[in-house]
Amino acid sequence: MERAAAGLSELGIGAGDGVSWILPTTTEALVLTGALSRLGALQNPIVPIYRHREVRFVAAQSKARLLIVPPRYRGFDYGEMARELAAELEGLETLVLDSGLPEADPAALPAVPQPTPPDRAPIRYLLYTSGTTSDPKGALHTDATLLATSRGLSDALDLRPGDRVAMVFPITHVGGLCWLYCSLLTGVAQLLVETFDPGPTIEFLSANQASLLGAGTAFHLAYLEAQRARGAEPIFPHARVFPGGGAPKPPQLHFDLKREIGGAGIASGYGLTECPIITNASPHDPDDKLAHTEGRANPPETRIKIVRLDDGAVAEPGEEGEVRALAPQCCKGYLDASLDADAFDEEGYFRTGDLGCLDADGYIVITGRLKDVIIRRGENISAKEVEDALYAHPKIADVAVIGLPDSLTGERACAVVACKRASDPLGFEEMVEFLKSQKMMVQKIPEQLELIEEVPRNPSGKILKKDLRERYAEAPFVRGGRG
Predict the structure, then answer these.
(1) The pTM is what?
(2) CATH code for the domain in which residue 455 is found
(3) pLDDT digits (tens, 9 = 90+) for 304-319
(4) N or C: which end of the chain has fewer CB within 10 A?
């Protein structure tokens, strides 16, 4: 790491310099993170799904001095993209890692800076939101904010040196950085997966005795499918717990994983790029909490309030409202400071834009997004409620419920379903009757069903509902059934 820092220093990178980088989850990426931290650079990890438009926006807004990329990854030429962007953006240089990180003698490196109190810690990370709804927003983080996140996560999951963590999602995601901090804090080992491919990935994780099998619903579904294909022999004999986050989980998935694979089941967390892991469950929590909630405030000094939408008052236990958090892991605002006023309330709480409630024991239940509520004839329909009900159908492997424009009702609910077997598809009337059997009110039952091979998700597991809305907004539709 010191040699890599020295190599970057010879390229002119020093304290405060902006460096954007895109790399898969490899040892090289971890070394780069440490090297940039050693130099005191402002590093901007970018998820590999970003392309020319998004990377250009990020590099231009952040005024990055250097863009570091692999030559190619998953069939895409990042080197060519980087060179095109360097020709467009004044002051941007590129480093294509076709022969590894630069190295030099670390003797000339400046002294390691002295630690500073958390409230005066310098900005070291620029982390952009996934940009599923609009241009990405750059959140400003410090070592202190990420360290607070990782301490809370380590305590919640009872991390120990013998643990081996499945690092199956991008290291450039905020969660990847937090798991790196967890390793440094507790000594847990990271099993790095460059590209998640269920067959070889599960074989690799099993052979290396993975005990924490993350990292969210999409991965957990893949594990469950593999276990069912294997039969009685456990694919993860050392499984202790299945950390989750980034996307809602169907409650039944917790029970299925625990019963069929083993361990404590899903211990999921809730947070955002701006305020990572606001809550997290513990493997020692009872099953009903693990299945139906996202845990409690994490770390303990985190304060959460639920604000009712009708009158702005703080909600009572069990009442739904917007989730807001005042936490040591919260970002220091956005790079575009004009966004800060809407992001924080008058008490300094971060407005998550998520709907949820706290139960009497302080566990949080996320019920949806403020913008993920389908308003049909003036009545609110929770997409997550319908998704959870549909997931229990034996034919369904994955599901997303979206709102589509409707001239008669304002919006209509559309269920986008990936079936377990293409040869045994779900029918519209079959879906309706199933939801009625679940005692769901008729007004909440989707009026449209679309079958899809795979529900699209971003690297953190969030369903790309914007893409689905665009895809199906103009699809033929016959009221009372599929178009």
Answers:
(1) 0.83
(2) 3.30.300.30
(3) 999 998 899 999 999 9
(4) C
